[in-house]
């Protein structure tokens, strides 16, 4: 049964190197902490939003930039089945507010010293097993609704992706500057 | 440089930019996007397979990721290695900054419920179950959708992320109320 149980060593090494960097960054960013995640949802600590928005803008510039420069970068756009994306997102948000972590930060939080994150990850494994049982039933009823394939904001609107990247970048810079000013004012 | 490596908290903008650049690297050199929640399916399936092999083999959702008995797909692949390495990655970051952090019951939780370890463990477990159920229904989580997906401008990922924050904020205020913010 162990035939093909693991991928080739190079793939594993690359995955592990990525995970080491990812875990390191999540810890330094503070997002492996329950109080930072809940602080975001209670609108007191905007660390999560700052990390995510910066990652999205920087990431988008690089990925679309490399493609524009003619590099062979494969996209990994997940299918838009908007009803399941939305309902799944709502369920996910409820779980994340109770646990205080998302899957990646929850696993990393174990390395950061969180004991309750271990119970959270065990719950995640059970959640995955539970979902596997009901997937066909749910898929049949929900996945066909508002289904648009591998759509992006650009492909849906027919606009250049750079309009969205520029818009996001400007909104992020203005939003973050306003947020920093608001946080300084509240501390003072 | 040494100062930066030892600094316990980095600017969220620096961390965000570094995560964006990490995405460039995985997309361009590995043909992969950062993600974590599929690994929970592979791990759950591999564990369940040791108890009920027939059941797992016949499950269409598990075989999508684990293959069939005739043509198995690897359990421990790129993303699985990534998820496992998150633990030493975060541990190393904590060690280098000489932080001593141990948490069993978060202060906010203890304020709202109790300082009981058992209570918090059950709460965290239930949260984890709900979290992954939602992630698998949506086809991804905070990494696969809210970072990797949104940066590709994927429609699915923006819808997921807006739903996540809406429900997260509503649930947090429902549990902890307006006063909760004073205890984080």
Structural account:
The complex is a heterodimer of chains A (188) and B (184). By secondary structure, chain A is mainly alpha-helical. Chain A is built from eight helices and two strands. Chain A has one domain. In chain A, helix 1 crosses helix 5 and helix 5 runs antiparallel to helix 6. In chain A, 51% of the residues are buried. Chain B is mainly alpha-helical and 184 residues long. Chain B folds into two domains: 102 residues, no CATH class; 81 residues, no CATH class. Chain B has ten helices and no strands. The longest helix of chain B is centred in the last third of the chain and has 22 residues. The chains are: A mainly alpha (188), B mainly alpha (184). At the A-B interface, helix 1, helix 2, helix 3, strand 1 and helix 4 of A face helix 2, helix 3, helix 5, helix 6 and helix 7 of B.
Helices and strands in order, then pairings?
The complex is a heterodimer of chains A (188) and B (184).
Chain A: H1 9-29, H2 34-41, H3 47-68, E1 80-81, H4 82-99, H5 103-112, H6 116-142, E2 147-149, H7 153-157, H8 161-187
Antiparallel strand pairs in A: 1-2
Chain B: H1 2-6, H2 12-30, H3 37-51, H4 53-58, H5 60-66, H6 78-96, H7 107-112, H8 117-138, H9 144-151, H10 155-176
Helix pairs in contact in B: 9-10
Question: Could you give a short description of this structure?
Answer:
The complex is a heterodimer of chains A (188) and B (184). Chain A is built from eight helices and two strands; from the N terminus they run H-H-H-E-H-H-H-E-H-H.
